[in-house]
Design brief:
By secondary structure, the protein is mainly α. It contains 20 helices and no strands.
């Protein structure tokens, strides 16, 4: 056993149990009850309950756009006051991100999801009953805190409960539900009052809170907490009553026992050479995702569509028509084509989309070419939107949930999620200044960053398709005896 080898002063056996020949009806890839596991009803239910949090995320993002005129007219807000209401969501998300990993480690993945929904419900109700800007901002900040927690714990929980052959597609449902929540909220916002829309926002929160007691806790979190029997029980429920879970359970237990010999990890422990590759990949993908211009495209889409001769509403519907199918396609392809090919195609597409938008601004100043500007603008936005939805929107969160070992996942998750929200705020704040400097230059910069993303993925991002979390983490973060003794 690994534990015995460590006590002898060396890792004479690998952390990962070697594949065994398929016998007694095990799955075709040699991993009993895990490599070729099917989607059981408990696994599907657990994922659906978890992604209710993703839907909440989407409703919060999609709420401010269709309600702007209604809230400003009824409460008499200035444009600056409403801008604060919209942007304070990101500040709340950063606050939630800072503590997300620690909370998820202390009270479990289910507990963290329930805890976050308390903030979301409180925030939505504050918006519903608000009489002035202060209550609006408080509600939006509270929703943001819950969002920051959910953006970390939902993909981590799904990654930890799914078998390796299904993990990518199931985890990407997180991004699909964000997309659905944002799109549906935008469409509903054109039909109902802003207070009613905020009240509707509490529905997925309540569904998740009611559903959490009926789904199992993450087996890997239970193993980390030393609750071996609960770990096996949860794993059996997730894989089905007739599934053979012995090898998967042993692998989780062996790896957890090894990591338990390390002292409690802090955020500073992340900056050791052992975790360098995981940290570079996790943080790098989030930085490139945000600085590739996603918020700029989303926030400026209406103006671009207007310049292209379309109404803002028609343009938004066109984006939804592209976004949801492409996100769904990415979900389907995740465990077939792999993470890296989708990321490469997605980053290349966003690079092309930003380049076309930049060209559209250049053409506006050229006589005889102005009529082509709107075509390039429309084409660029839709290409970017579709390509981002295919991979760059969801896969960085999938990989973040896969590459960090369980003892570092809390600290790493908090850091990576904070970096994502900080990048989102920076781009949102700086975008108008960049556009005053040079509209075309701004989008050419975004295009260049997307091009760098292609190189980053090709050189550094590992393919995690078809590998267990323990296999991924052991290959990226090798635990040597020296590392163990230096930390413990």
């Amino acid at each position: 056993m690994v534990k015995e080898s460590i006590e002898e002063g060396q890792l004479s056996s690998p952390l990962i149990v070697a594949d065994k020949p398929c016998e007694n009806g095990c799955s075709g890839d040699g991993h009993e009850g895990m490599g070729g596991s099917s989607a059981t009803s408990v696994l599907v239910l657990s994922t659906l309950i978890a992604v209710c949090g993703s839907y909440v995320f989407g409703t919060a993002v999609g709420y401010s756009s269709p309600t702007e005129s209604g809230i400003m007219d009824e409460l008499g807000l200035s444009l600056a006051e409403y801008s604060l209401f919209g942007s304070i969501l990101t500040i709340g998300a950063m606050l939630g991100a800072i503590v997300s990993g620690r909370i998820a480690d202390l009270i479990g993945r289910r507990g963290a999801m329930g805890f976050s929904e308390v903030f979301c419900i409180m925030g939505w109700l504050a918006v519903v009953f608000s009489k002035d800007a202060w209550w609006l901002d408080f509600g939006r900040l509270s929703i943001g805190c819950g969002m920051g927690l959910l953006s970390y714990v939902v993909p981590v929980y799904i990654a930890e409960i799914t078998p390796k052959n299904l993990r990518g597609g199931f985890t990407t449902v997180h991004q699909l539900m964000i997309c659905c929540g944002s799109s549906i909220t935008f469409l509903l916002g054109t039909l109902v009052n802003w207070r009613i829309l905020a009240l509707i926002g509490t529905i997925p929160c309540l569904i998740q809170i009611v559903g959490l007691p009926f789904i199992p806790e993450s087996p890997r979190w239970l193993a980390r907490s030393g609750r071996w029997q609960d770990c096996e029980d949860a794993l059996q429920r997730l894989r089905g009553e007739g599934a053979i879970i012995s090898q998967e359970a042993a692998e989780i237990k062996d790896y957890s026992e090894t990591l338990q010999r390390l002292s409690e990890a802090t955020i500073l422990d992340l900056f050791q050479w052992t975790y360098a590759r995981s940290l570079i990949v996790g943080v790098g993908l989030m930085v490139l995702q945000q600085f590739g211009g996603v918020n700029a495209i989303v926030f400026y889409a209406s103006a671009i569509f207007v310049s292209a001769g379309f109404s803002g509403r028609v343009g938004s519907i066109a984006m939804v028509a592209v976004q949801i199918p492409m996100t769904t396609l990415g979900t389907i392809l995740m465990d077939k084509s792999g993470r890296r090919p989708l990321l490469l195609a997605s980053a290349a597409g966003t690079c092309l989309g930003c380049f076309f938008v930049g060209i559209s601004f250049l053409l506006q100043g050229l006589q005889g070419w102005k009529e082509l500007g709107p075509i390039f603008a429309l084409l660029g936005v839709l290409i970017y939107d579709g390509a981002f939805s295919l991979g760059m929107g969801g896969i960085p969160w999938v990989i973040m949930s896969e590459i960090f070992p369980i003892n570092m996942k809390g600290s790493a998750g908090s850091l990576v999620t904070l970096v994502s929200w900080l990048g989102s705020w920076i781009i949102s704040y700086a975008f108008n200044f960049l556009m005053k400097w040079s509209s075309a230059g701004t989008f050419f910069i975004f295009s260049s960053i997307c091009g760098i993303t292609v190189l980053f993925v090709a050189k550094l991002v590992p393919e995690t398709k078809g590998r267990t979390l323990e296999e991924i983490q052991a290959s990226m973060n090798p635990l040597s005896t020296k590392d163990i003794h230096s930390i413990s």
